[in-house]
């Protein structure tokens, strides 16, 4: 194992997230109750996804400047693990919203109609679909250099679309996500309780490091495969 | 490497015996694992899962390093 300080930091921060996230004090809010602790898990998935997609686009640009295939491999795997975290964020959000937003007195079909209008839900779905298309595009081009160049350019477009779909549109439309009235449905540094910040920021770092760790393993495997092909 | 593996297995099994032991010595006493709506039980379960996943990741990392050394 390649020993690095950040892997140890990742393990420590994640254990802190899981223990502190369950046991430390949180504000008592109506409707949310204890589910407010999902902030340490559900929201962190999206943060991790954003950071991994950012790393992916950085390596895509690096590939276009350097034409080195290793940069293309880095870019691909950062995007793939980013998608994984995005799907996890979506799935956890689906569970969370069924017990907070959905109306228990309505049939699930009717309350789904209300929840499905949530702009962040649609925006995140579009963003993820664009990245699914990135993977499809990669596998549909057999020439290695052509694939790397075309998908690097597509990656930049996908990243540019990520911002309107998950950052801009949810701020314009009315949203069920908290903080929508202040025009900032994502992270408002004045809105988040000080007690929750103690766990939330370390949790974001811990989850992101976990994502980077998994990505680094995937990259190393695929570099090995590449080496074997050349020999 | 092997020592660390044995040591972690030992720690897990020791903590498991602690948990089971707490259940049978006194009936309905409010010890830690039974207080607070038994949230500590959930924490123990989640931490065990996290521990398992991270150990798996570490093992995977080691295996890949071994292959890298052999091929390089």
Q: Please outline the major beta sheet of chain B.
A: none
How many angstroms does the end-to-end distance of chain A come to? Answer: 25 Å
Oligomeric status of the shown chains? heterodimer
Question: Roughly what percent helix of chain A?
Answer: over 70%
Tell me the structural class of chain B: mainly alpha
Give the chain pair forming the largest contact, with residue counts.
A-B, 18 and 19 residues
Q: Please report the distance between the alpha carbons of the first and last residues of chain B.
A: 22 Å
- β-strand number of chain B: 0
Taken in chain order, the helices and strands of chain A follow as: HHHHHHH
Describe the structure.
The complex is a heterodimer of chains A (231) and B (72). Chain A has 231 residues and is mainly alpha-helical. Chain A has one domain (35-230). Chain A is 74% helix and 0% strand. Chain A is built from 7 helices and no strands. Chain A has helices at 5-23, 42-66, 69-100, 108-115, 119-140, 144-172, 194-230. In chain A, helix 3 (69-100) packs antiparallel against helix 5. Chain A starts with a helix and ends with a helix. The mean pLDDT of chain A is 86. Chain B is mainly alpha-helical and 72 residues long. Chain B has one domain (2-71). Helices cover 78% and strands 0% of the residues of chain B. Chain B has 2 helices and no strands. Chain B has helices spanning 2-24, 39-71. Chain B is elongated and about 60 Å long. Chain B starts with a helix and ends with a helix. Chain A binds chain B through residues 1-2, 7, 11, 14-15, 18-19, 22-23, 213-214, 217, 220-221, 224, 227-228, and chain B through 39-40, 42-43, 46-47, 50, 54, 57-58, 60-62, 64-65, 67-68, 71-72.
Q: What is the secondary structure topology, with strand pairs?
A:
The complex is a heterodimer of chains A (231) and B (72).
Chain A: H1 5-23, H2 42-66, H3 69-100, H4 108-115, H5 119-140, H6 144-172, H7 194-230
Helix pairs in contact in A: 1-7, 2-3, 2-6, 2-7, 3-5, 3-7, 5-6
Chain B: H1 2-24, H2 39-71
């Amino acid at each position: 194992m390649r020993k690095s300080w950040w892997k140890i930091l990742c393990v420590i921060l994640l254990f802190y997230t899981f223990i502190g996230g369950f046991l430390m004090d949180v504000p008592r809010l109506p409707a949310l109750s204890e589910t407010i602790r999902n902030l340490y898990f559900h929201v962190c998935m999206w943060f991790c996804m954003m950071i991994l997609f950012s790393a992916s686009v950085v390596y895509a640009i690096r590939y276009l400047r350097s034409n080195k295939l290793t940069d293309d491999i880095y870019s691909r795997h950062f995007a793939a693990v980013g998608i994984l975290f995005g799907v996890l964020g979506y799935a956890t959000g689906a569970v969370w919203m069924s017990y907070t937003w959905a109306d228990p007195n309505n049939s699930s079909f009717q309350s789904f109609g209300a929840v499905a209008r949530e702009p962040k839900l649609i925006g995140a779905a579009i963003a993820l679909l664009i990245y699914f298309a990135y993977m499809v595009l990669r596998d549909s081009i057999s020439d290695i250099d052509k694939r790397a160049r075309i998908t690097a350019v597509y990656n930049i477009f996908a990243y540019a679309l990520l911002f309107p779909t998950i950052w801009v549109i949810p701020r314009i439309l009315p949203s069920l996500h908290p903080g929508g009235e202040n025009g900032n449905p994502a992270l408002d540094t004045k809105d988040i309780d000080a007690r929750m910040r103690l766990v939330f920021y370390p949790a974001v770092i811990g989850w992101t490091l976990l994502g980077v760790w998994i990505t680094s393993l995937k990259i190393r495997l695929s570099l090995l495969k590449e080496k074997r092909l050349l020999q | 490497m092997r020592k660390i593996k044995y040591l972690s297995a030992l720690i897990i099994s020791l903590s498991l015996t602690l948990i089971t032991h707490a259940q049978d010595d006194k009936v309905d006493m409010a010890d830690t694992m039974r207080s607070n709506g038994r949230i500590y039980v959930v924490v123990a379960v989640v931490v065990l899962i996290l521990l398992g996943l991270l150990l798996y990741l570490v093992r995977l990392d080691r295996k890949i390093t071994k292959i890298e050394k052999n091929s390089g």
